[in-house]
Amino acid sequence: MILVTGGAGFIGSNFVLDWLAQSEETVINLDALTYAGNRANLASLEGDSRHIFVKGSITDFDLVARLLHEHHPRAVINFAAESHVDRSIHGPENFIHTNIVGTFRLLECVRAFWNDLREPDQQDFRFLHVSTDEVYGTLSKEASPFTEVSRYEPNSPYSASKAASDHLVRAWHHTYGLPVLTTNCSNNYGPYHFPEKLIPLMIVNALAGKPLPVYGDGMQIRDWLYVKDHCGAIRRVLEVGKPGEIYNIGGWNEKPNIEIVNTVCKLLDELRPKADGTSYASQITYVADRPGHDRRYAIDAHKIERELGWRPAETFETGIRKTVQWYLDNPEWVVRVQSGAYREWITRQYGE
Ligand code: NAD
Ligand code: DAU
């Protein structure tokens, strides 16, 4: 039995679906179902007794304590977070509450549960904290990719809150001996990605005939990993990672944003050509830059490759094709997750 938090979100739901496709081991899925959590992502698990969904927050000490004592999981995997940088600029408080206070309360519950375990179960137990490359700040063009010993230099309210949570996890290992693992991953893309993030937003806007808003000059670089490869890496770290260690996860796929947007447009031109024969690229619109925008992220994945033998299965070309096809095949999913009020703020902030 494992306890997953945030398992109705983008990466968490992909993780739960993959886990149950490969294992008989039950998953307790604790998710607060914020705007980003969507039970429809888990619809294929309806009636499956290996999936126990609980609506609730990692900040709820009593609930988490009860779940741990009732189900006795051998591991906790913490995906639950506020995850979007633009939202953290718009309103940082939720990020402090969920990402920092939430991680703290979860750690405290897990520590109390772990303390009461028998010695062999204590040794086998794992707390895996899912984090981000954004905690390392921004890289110049010439700089080497982030390693596990790169300095923490978070620049947005989101990345600062994730950095704080990573430090708490580290401290709970060093001070209390809790067997923790931390993963810092680069930008994910794939099915069930909420259309506020670059790739799904571009697909959805393109199909709706709306502008494709590129922040600033579009030359900011992100390092892209297909979400199923991230899930595989987390499973690998959970099974053979060394407690107390950090593992950076990435697929050596650095690309400027404008190249990503052009790739999405080309794929849509091929898979769903516009009636008037023009390219979706004609919808690209340069807008104001994101405040404090990090210029470049890049992950050095040597450690997880060397020590745990992990490698991604998808190239960017195969992963992005699958992703665009998934959005073409699932228009009703998109309609259900779109929220009006937030898009109004985005329009005011960045223009049409
Ligand atoms: P997401 O926003 O799609 O999903 C977050 C999930 O957490 C949602 O289901 C939401 O309902 C749930 N949640 C929020 N607050 C909660 C709370 N208090 N208690 C319980 N559940 C709560 O995020 P994502 O993109 O799937 O990211 C998952 C994790 O991976 C986050 O910790 C994020 O920082 C990290 N991460 C994301 C990426 C990426 O590219 N998306 C890359 C690296 C790391
Ligand atoms: O690096 C890992 C991080 O990747 C995760 O920790 C975050 O949870 C996840 O949201 C993601 O953060 P980014 O800020 O990199 O992702 P986003 O999709 O918001 O933006 C990707 C890049 O595209 C970034 O440089 C900003 C730019 N962008 C984004 C949007 C939404 C645009 O140019 N236009 C847009 O409309």
UniProtKB/TrEMBL annotation:
Catalysed conversion reaction: dTDP-alpha-D-glucose = dTDP-4-dehydro-6-deoxy-alpha-D-glucose + H2O
MF (Gene Ontology): dTDP-glucose 4,6-dehydratase activity
EC number: 4.2.1.46
GO terms classed as biological process: nucleotide-sugar metabolic process
This protein's record includes keyword Lyase: yes
Keyword Transferase found: no
Named cofactor requirement(s): NAD(+)
Superkingdom of origin: Bacteria
Domain (NAD(P)-binding) ranges: 3-323
Keywords of the record: Lyase, NAD
Classification via NCBIfam families: dTDP_gluc_dehyt (TIGR01181)
Family, similarity comment: Belongs to the NAD(P)-dependent epimerase/dehydratase family. dTDP-glucose dehydratase subfamily.
Name of the featured protein: dTDP-glucose 4,6-dehydratase
Organism for this UniProt entry: Nitrosomonas europaea (strain ATCC 19718 / CIP 103999 / KCTC 2705 / NBRC 14298)
